[in-house]
Amino acid sequence: MNTVPIIDHDPKPCKPAAGQPVPVPTRLTFWGVRGSIPTPGPTTVHYGGNTTCVEVRADGQIIILDAGTGLRLLGQQLIAEFDEQPLDLTLLLTHTHWDHIQGLPFFIPVYKPKSRLHILGYEGSRHGLEVVLAGQMENPFFPIALHEVPANVRIEELKEVNFSIGPVRAQACVANHPGICVGYRLFTSGGSIAFFPDNEPYSETSPPHGLPGEPATDAGARARSERQRLIEFLRGADVLIMDSQYDCEEYRRHAGWGHGCVKDVVSLAIEARVKRLFLFHHDPNHDDAKIRQMEAQARELVAASNSSLEVEAAREGVTFELPTASYPPT
Ligand SMILES: [Zn+2]
Ligand SMILES: [Zn+2]
């Protein structure tokens, strides 16, 4: 089986032809891969214990996907790499559950006056995104309020599902998860990346979770159409990072909780003709051995389907590089 290429943080660009711009590959780095709550300790060393945070570098942009506790490590890396140079960062939030925002108060770049952080997301609750993010830094939860940090932090609630981050085109899609939660797809010059850290795929095998008072037949039809909608959104993605928190047996006890199981996620990725799937949002009760087992199970499912899908369990600290398709981005 293929393994994820691990690269250092100073990849050498291939030599350009005379007069040609240097193509820079799209790179993604996992800074936090865990769901729900951080899980430090000897049994989670391999896959890591920090909560959701993925960095994408593409087309001159640094795009951060969610701000779980892994964001703290990314902050350290950015300061070490760029020293006192001004940073211009974009943070996309899928939703505001704790495991997706708790790293923000510990993100060193927000304490640097020259940094700019543009936070984008959808309304977090009836109070709005800005109130929710500022709330976790209010006294008595944290000593420094969000409005007191020296960096230029701008919070923007998205109203449209199509938007751009510099030359990177982005799309959002509603996820099946409690409250307001979305997934994103980024279209970079090196390929496209879909990110659904919290999502329960609708499937033919799992019972549809009807709306209150909704007849089962209607719920079944809605589940099928929702599944198709997600397949269209993901179709042909080079990389899919998706919530695969449970195995099949666990899922039976957690259906309707808003998280996926390996079997459904693999089947969704195959049907959407995704090229590479990262199992993500590892359950806090799963140790390294269990995650390895789930990765092996996912690969068996792929093999049984005669699919060319590559599948890995996401691991903290690993960088993956997408091939550069063209330059400049089209
Ligand atoms: Zn989560
Ligand atoms: Zn969540």
Question: What is the fold's blueprint, element by element?
Answer:
Elements: E1 26-32, E2 53-58, E3 61-65, H1 70-82, E4 88-92, E5 116-121, H2 129-135, E6 152-157, E7 162-165, E8 168-174, E9 182-188, E10 191-196, H3 216-234, E11 239-243, H4 248-254, H5 262-271, E12 276-280, H6 288-304, E13 310-313, E14 319-322
Parallel strand pairs: 3-4, 4-5, 5-6, 10-11, 11-12, 12-13
Antiparallel strand pairs: 1-2, 1-14, 2-3, 7-8, 8-9, 9-10
Helix pairs in contact: 5-6
The site of one zinc ion has 8 residues, from loops.
Would you write up a description of this structure?
22% of the residues lie in helices and 23% in strands. With 330 residues, the protein is an alpha/beta fold. It has one domain (26-321): Ribonuclease Z/Hydroxyacylglutathione hydrolase-like (Metallo-beta-lactamase, Chain A, 4-Layer Sandwich), CATH 3.60.15.10. The strands form two sheets. A seven-stranded mixed beta sheet has the order 6-5-4-3-2-1-14. Strands 7-8-9-10-11-12-13 form a seven-stranded mixed beta sheet, covered by helices on one side. Helix 5 packs parallel to helix 6 (288-304). The radius of gyration is 19 Å and the shape is globular. Bound molecules: zinc ion (2 copies). The site of one zinc ion has 4 residues, from loops. One zinc ion is lined by residues 35, 52, 97, 99-100, 197-198, 281.
